[in-house]
Amino acid sequence: MTPYEVYIAYISWGTDGKRRPVLFLEEDGSHIRAFRITSQYESKSDTIKEKYIKIADWKQSGLLKPSYIDAGEKVRIEAALISPEEPIGKLTDSDKRRLLDFLAK
Length: 105
What we know:
This protein has two helices and six strands, in the order βββαβββα. Strands 4-5-3-2-1-6 form a six-stranded antiparallel β-sheet, covered by helices on one side. The chain has helices at about 45-50, 95-105; strands at about 5-15, 15-30, 30-40, 50-55, 65-80, 90. With about 100 residues, the protein is of the alpha+beta class.
């Protein structure tokens, strides 16, 4: 796995969860650290929207619809919950630069 690749992972909350795209950041033993990726934006509060970065080149990143990186929190995911296939895509250089600039603020 390489940083800034997009994978599908099972993300859980409480007793529920779903498979969704994540942006791989780093390995952490038997876990990985990643940012969630979401297509939900308009219905979010302004506070939450401030933590989202639009993925301009979403098709090139392997995503099926316009999406956003939720940079509000890195999630820790068991590596076994990541789809074992190849990544579905990778951030383009321009999207990666925008993410890094956002995180540097």
